[in-house]
Cytochrome c domain-containing protein (Skermanella aerolata), 127 residues
Amino acid sequence: MKLLALRLMGPMLAAACSLGASQAFAETKPVSDSHPFHQCASCHSLDTSANAFGPTLIGVYGRSAGTVPRFAYSEAVQKSGIVWNEDNLRKWISGNDAFIPGTRMRHVAITDKAKQDELIDFLKALK
Ligand code: HEC
């Protein structure tokens, strides 16, 4: 009896935990207000592979643009044919809609080189 209950509880607990985790994510700030990723976190989840309003950025460094499964990208990003290396990430965060006109992502403009470096290092480390 106890074993059966445990077996039933396992998946339920797992489901509850993953729900709890994404809710916790939405409510808490994963990075400090002054960290440049703070401007991205409202749309990009740091939850392993979950897509939010934007696609997951886990593993974004070195990935081809527009290739996260089950995310509805704009045609512009899908057809851009770029890979998210340092150079392209820098262009994207300094003015995404100028870099890929027609993107659905809201305009961001991080022009401070030190902030760009901090953000790119952060994105590189998201694995
Ligand atoms: C208002 C919501 C929003 C904010 C804020 C936002 N993004 Fe996005 N992001 C999106 C959406 C939506 C897309 C998909 C764009 C498309 O398909 O045109 C996207 C796409 C991306 C991509 C391409 C990913 C891929 O798989 O090709 C990168 C990289 C990215 N965002 C980085 C960032 C960074 C870094 C920030 C913070 C400086 C940021 N985003 C802020 C919504 C947002």
Observations:
- Residues 1-29 have pLDDT under 50 and may be disordered.
